[in-house]
Specification:
With 292 residues, the chain is α+β, with helices and mostly antiparallel strands. The strands form 2 sheets. Strands 1-2-9-4-7-10 form a 6-stranded antiparallel sheet. A hairpin with a 2-residue loop joins strand 5 and strand 6. The longest helix has 19 residues.
């Protein structure tokens, strides 16, 4: 069987010159992680590559379809559709497309002072059985097309940042998937509830009233709000009240006890205690410091 390293119909490949790699090594935005080679080989029949001393870079291979084999040292990996494997730098390896079902692969060579932190575990097959494969490939196109437009600093820096996102989408695959699985109505619920709180700062709102406004049970809404904001609804409401009180202290002539009752506090002492806890200064001190 004939073995070839490249030259496939429809292939795309960019190899960055060494002078550009030197620039990336010294650039503050790119030195932690940057691309040295990037490409796509469709229907790569007879594709074969062997590096007895390994490569200077980590190599990511994403199999879009078909099958192939990657050998790293003495270990062999069978790569198939929607699977990724990263070959570590300086490790002897070879890879080849399956004769009867040749692979189509996206590949990236990358380096950087922090490359080991961004890359998911090397020498481990990762299956991308998620709903955002097209989003990940959009990131690949962002990198490729920017580099294709020229090795200008902005293009190199932008591609480096995209690479970080690309690798993070693999390393943190659960987080990457979660965005598409979130109920869109849940996403709308938080801003709706906050607007309702803002419009009712002068009322003594309860958790039940806020939850009812957005159409959820008390417990579900409380847990959802806490997950998205790191605060309970009532804690967030109190923060909004303190925010409003700052404005009233600075720009109105209302007395402190009037502000307290206006914003629904039990008494001025309760208001002063809440304000001081949040702002690390008393209402009176705040007014003295910021009043025009």
């Amino acid at each position: 069987m004939e073995h070839i390293a490249d030259g496939f119909k429809g292939e795309r490949a960019i190899v960055l010159p060494y002078s550009i790699r030197n620039f990336q090594t010294n650039n503050e935005l790119t030195k932690s992680l940057y691309i040295t080679h990037i490409g796509y080989y469709p229907n790569a029949k007879n594709h074969f590559r062997k590096r007895s001393k390994g490569a200077l870079e980590d190599i990511l291979i994403y199999c879009e379809k078909g099958k192939g084999t990657i050998t790293i040292g003495n270990e062999q990996f069978k790569l198939t559709e929607n699977q990724i494997l990263i070959i570590p730098a300086n490790k002897p390896h070879s890879y080849e497309s399956e004769a009867s079902n040749p692979w189509s692969i996206y590949w990236i060579h990358f380096r950087g002072t922090k490359s080991s932190l961004y890359a998911p575990a090397a020498e481990k097959i990762i299956t991308l059985n998620d709903v955002r494969i097209s989003n990940r490939l959009d990131l690949f196109e962002e990198m490729y097309q920017n580099l294709e437009m020229g090795f200008y600093a902005d293009n190199l820096e932008y591609s480096s940042i995209c690479l970080k996102h690309f690798l993070s989408s693999i390393k943190y695959i659960d987080q990457f998937i979660r965005i598409k699985s979130i109920n869109t109505s849940d996403l709308d619920t938080i801003p709706m509830s906050i607007i309702f709180m803002r419009d009712n700062l002068t009322n003594k709102l309860t958790l039940s009233q806020i939850a009812k406004h957005v159409g959820y049970s008390d417990s579900y809404f409380r847990n959802l709000f806490l997950e998205k904001t790191s605060f309970t609804p009532i804690e967030y409401l109190n923060k909004l009240k303190i925010q409003k009180s700052c404005s009233l202290l600075q720009f109105s002539n209302m007395k402190i006890n009037e502000i307290a009752y206006y914003l629904g506090y039990y008494d001025p002492y309760h208001f002063s205690k809440s304000f001081s806890k949040e702002m690390e200064i008393s209402p009176r001190e705040y007014r003295k410091k910021y009043k025009n």
